[in-house]
Design goal:
427 residues, CBS-domain, 13 strands
Length: 427
C-alpha cells in the first residue's frame, strides 16, 4: 500500500509539472515565445529546443497530452487498487474522491495560479526539465505523429495562427471598441487602427478611379494641349491613348510637358514624351501594390480587368487615403469634391463618387459586391438607369436625380430619410 501511495504522489507531481508547462506556454503569445528564443545565447540548447517546439507544435502537444492523460489514468488506477484492499462499500467512492481531490489542484488550479503573473519566467525554468521528458517520450510520439500524417493532415500548418479561424480581426475590433468606450483610444485613433487592419484586405478595384472618370489625352495631341488639360483638370500625370481608352501607350508627366513648353517644343506630339505605363490587375491587393510602386518609384498605375481592358486608374495618394482618410489638395475648393453638404442638410453628390465614402458620410449601409460608385449603387437598387428629375428612396436615403444622360447618373441630391423608410421603393 505504501508503494501505491508513493506512486500516486509521484504521478501527481509529474502531473503538476506538465500542467505548469502547459499553463506557462498557453499564457505566452507566439510573438513573445519567439522573442524569448531570440534573446537566448546562440549556443544555448534551450534556444534550439524552444525553436524546435515552435516549429513542431504537434509533437509538443502530443507529449503534453500523453503525460497528462497517462498520469490521470495512473492515479485513478492506484485509487481503484487501494479501494480493493478494503471490504467496505464506501472504499471505492472514497478512493476515487481522494484521487479527484489530488488531480484537480495539481492539474488545473495550482498551475494556473502560479504562472499567471510570470509565465515567461516559469517557462524558462521548466524548459530544461521538460526537454528531458520530451526526449524520453519521443519513441511513443513519433509513431503517433506518423499516424496523423497518414490521414493527409498537415499538423504543423493546422496549428499556425494563419490557419486558425478568422477571429483575430474581430478580437482587435472588440479591443478598439472597448478602448473607445473607456476613453483610452480617441475615435480618430480607432478609425486609423481599423484602416490599417483592413488595408491588407483591400483590392485595387475598391479604390481605383473608374474608367469613365479617367482624364486622358490622345497621343496625337500637342504638348500644349496636354498641358492645358492638366491645368484645367488639376492633374500632374495623364494616361495617353492612341485609338481609344483601352489603347494606352504611356503616361505624360507635367514636368516633361513643362520642359517642352519652356524649350519651344509646344507643338510636339505627346507620344514623343510619354513614359511607360504600369498595369496591374484589379484583384491585386493595395498593400502589395504600394510596395511595388515604392520599389519602382511609380506614382500611378492603370488597372486592367480579367479581359485585359482598362478598368480604372489608381495613384499612391489613393492608396494612402485608405489609411489616413481623404487628402485634399491645398488649392482645391471644397465644391470640386465628389460630395458637397448644403445648408439644408442635403448632399450634392457625383454619380462617380465612391459609395464607401458616401456610406460614411450619410451613416447608411450602402456597399455591395457588384458596385463601387453611387451610380452603380442606384442602378443596382432600381435595376435601371433613372431619368433626370426622378425622386425615390433607397436604403434610408431620399434620392433626387439632378443629372442623368440615360446611360449613367451624373449628379444626385441625397437626404437621410426617416428610419421607417429603409426599404428601397420608388416614389
Amino acid at each position: 500500500m505504501e508503494y501505491a501511495l508513493a506512486l500516486a504522489l509521484v504521478t501527481a507531481g509529474g502531473l503538476f509539472f506538465l500542467a505548469l508547462v502547459e499553463s506557462a506556454h498557453g499564457s505566452i503569445s507566439e510573438v513573445t515565445l519567439r522573442s524569448l528564443a531570440a534573446e537566448m545565447p546562440d549556443e544555448s540548447p534551450q534556444r534550439a529546443f524552444l525553436r524546435h517546439l515552435l516549429s513542431h507544435r504537434l509533437e509538443f502537444w502530443l507529449s503534453l497530452s500523453l503525460g497528462l492523460q497517462t498520469g490521470t489514468l495512473a492515479i485513478t488506477a492506484v485509487a481503484i487498487f487501494l479501494a480493493q484492499r478494503f471490504s467496505s462499500p464506501l472504499a471505492l467512492p472514497v478512493a476515487l474522491g481522494a484521487a479527484l481531490f489530488l488531480v484537480i489542484p495539481a492539474r488545473q488550479i495550482l498551475p494556473r495560479i502560479l504562472v499567471q503573473n510570470q509565465p515567461e519566467a516559469y517557462l524558462l525554468r521548466l524548459l530544461p526539465w521538460f526537454r528531458l521528458y520530451f526526449n524520453a517520450v519521443q519513441p511513443v510520439i513519433r509513431p503517433m505523429r506518423q499516424l496523423i500524417a497518414s490521414f493527409r493532415v498537415e499538423p504543423e500548418r493546422s496549428l499556425t495562427p494563419e490557419a486558425l479561424p478568422p477571429t483575430e480581426g474581430e478580437s482587435i475590433q472588440a479591443l478598439i471598441d472597448v478602448g473607445e468606450e473607456a476613453g483610452i483610444i480617441e475615435e480618430e485613433e480607432g478609425e486609423l487602427i481599423q484602416s490599417v487592419i483592413e488595408f491588407s484586405d483591400t483590392a485595387v478595384r475598391e479604390i481605383m478611379t473608374q474608367r469613365p472618370d479617367i482624364v486622358s489625352v490622345r497621343a496625337s495631341a500637342t504638348v500644349r494641349e496636354a498641358g492645358e488639360t492638366m491645368t484645367r483638370q488639376r492633374r500632374s500625370r495623364l494616361p495617353v491613348f492612341e485609338q481609344d481608352s483601352d489603347d494606352i501607350v504611356g503616361i505624360v508627366f507635367i514636368r516633361d510637358a513643362l520642359d517642352c513648353l519652356l524649350s519651344g517644343r509646344e507643338h510636339l506630339p505627346v507620344r514623343e514624351i510619354v513614359r511607360p505605363a504600369y498595369f496591374v490587375p484589379e484583384s491585386k491587393g493595395i498593400a502589395d501594390l504600394l510596395e511595388d510602386m515604392r520599389k519602382s518609384a511609380m506614382q500611378i498605375a492603370l488597372v486592367i480587368d480579367e479581359y485585359g481592358d482598362v478598368a480604372g486608374l489608381v495613384t499612391i495618394e489613393d492608396i494612402l487615403e485608405e489609411i489616413v482618410g481623404e487628402i485634399e489638395d491645398e488649392d482645391q475648393p471644397p465644391e470640386d469634391g465628389d460630395a458637397l453638404l448644403e445648408t439644408d442638410g442635403t448632399w450634392l453628390v457625383r454619380g462617380s463618387a465612391e459609395i464607401r465614402k458616401i456610406e460614411v458620410m450619410t451613416e447608411r449601409e450602402l456597399s455591395g459586391d457588384d458596385f463601387q460608385t453611387v451610380n452603380g449603387f442606384i442602378v443596382s437598387e432600381l435595376e435601371r438607369v433613372p431619368s433626370t428629375g426622378e425622386h425615390f428612396i433607397v436604403r434610408g436615403l431620399e434620392v433626387e436625380v439632378l443629372e442623368s444622360d440615360g446611360r449613367a447618373i451624373r449628379r444626385v441630391r441625397l437626404r437621410r430619410s426617416a428610419p421607417a423608410s429603409q426599404e428601397a421603393e420608388e416614389a
